[in-house]
Design goal:
Blueprint: E1 6-8, E2 14-16, E3 20-21, H1 27-40, E4 44-46, H2 54-62, E5 72-77, H3 84-98, E6 105-108, H4 118-130, E7 137-140, H5 144-153, E8 160-164, H6 172-181, E9 184-188, H7 200-209, H8 213-223, E10 227-228, H9 235-240, H10 251-258
Parallel strand pairs: 3-4, 4-5, 5-6, 6-7, 7-8, 8-9, 9-10
Antiparallel strand pairs: 1-2
Helix pairs in contact: 1-2, 2-3, 3-4, 7-8
The structure holds NADPH dihydro-nicotinamide-adenine-dinucleotide phosphate and 1,5-anhydro-D-fructose.
Residues 23, 48, 109 line the site of 1,5-anhydro-D-fructose.
Length: 262
């Protein structure tokens, strides 16, 4: 069992650098998936109101027997709930479904610039933080312009920006902006949904390190300080995806992987 290392966020809260994604984990699968993950060492679960499994995630965490403070739960406000009051109501629904007390991390799922309400949505998250109903607040799918606006017009700097990121979409300019402003980068679809795991560069390097392609890709994330939340509903893969703390990619191999960005 490998318990992932903790990364310290800009408000001093810590988050496991590897977590389990819950998109498309059906409610009836959640209990087994989460129990398998906890047994394998995961301590972080990424869900969202939009995933339709918050209640089952909450139950699985409560029934795990793990101390609440040892588990990190992220959820997100969905696009249809932007706006100050709507967001507070959406949070109430999520917190009630989870039933875990304060939520560790609450994210704006998408900026939805066409609605132009992400600043007031963010202010609602700031209130939740000040009231102690969440331990940290962040965003997802925000571009540099959206982040700049939050930094200019609001008080709290997001702890993370969760974006699509994998060797084929490396997000260099955004990551640089995050680093300048103390925002952690969290990768969604860190395995690119498994679609490119037969890539020749990946399979050759995986063979070199005696690891699977998925482990190789996850190691690439971890070595760059990225938080990764791979999803799997398959017990063997849930375990496989944690066995990434016992090897290190050499500089040359990181350079070869940098070339995959498209
Ligand atoms: N903020 C946002 O807008 C978004 C957030 N997310 C979050 O990020 C999480 C992860 O992203 P997701 O899009 O699910 O994609 P991932 O990159 O995590 O890939 C998941 C897919 O890869 C397969 N897989 C997992 N492990 C392995 C392995 N070791 N070998 C081969 N195949 C494997 C899974 O199959 P199987 O389950 O059958 O094992 C599944 O089909 C989501 O679950 C969600 O929590 C995702 C999208 C958008
Ligand atoms: O979190 C999410 C899961 O994946 C969906 C489809 O790609 C995204 O739209 C959504 O943001």
């Amino acid at each position: 069992m490998a318990v992932p290392p903790l990364l310290t966020l800009n408000n001093s809260v810590t988050i496991p650098q590897l977590g389990l994604g819950m998109y498309q984990v059906r409610p009836d699968q959640v209990a087994k998936v989460v129990a398998t993950a906890f047994e394998a060492g995961y301590r972080s679960i990424d869900t969202a109101a939009m995933y339709g499994n918050e209640a089952e995630v909450g139950t699985a965490v409560r029934e795990s027997g793990l101390p609440r403070e040892d588990v990190f739960v992220t959820t997100k406000v969905w696009n249809t709930d932007h706006g100050y009051d709507n967001t507070l109501r959406a949070f109430d629904r999520s917190a009630e479904a989870l039933g875990l007390g304060p939520v560790d991390l609450y994210l704006i799922h998408w900026p939805k610039p066409e609605l132009d309400r992400y600043v007031e949505t963010w202010r609602a998250l700031e209130l939740l933080l000040n009231e102690g109903r969440v331990r940290a607040i962040g965003v997802s799918n925000f571009g540099i312009d959206h982040l700049r606006r939050l930094l200019d017009e609001t008080d709290v700097v997001p702890v993370v920006n969760q974006v699509e990121l994998h060797p084929w979409q490396q997000q260099a300019p955004l990551r640089e902006f995050h680093a300048e402003h103390g925002i952690a980068t969290e990768a969604w679809s860190p395995l690119a949904r498994g679609r490119n795991l037969n890539d020749q560069v990946i399979t050759a390097l995986a063979a070199k390190y005696g690891k699977t392609p998925a482990q190789l890709v996850l190691r690439w994330h971890l070595q760059q300080g990225i938080i990764a939340i791979p999803k799997s509903a398959t017990p063997s893969r849930i375990r496989e995806n944690t066995e990434v703390f016992d090897f290190e990619l050499a500089e040359d191999d990181l350079l070869a992987l940098a070339e995959l960005d498209s």
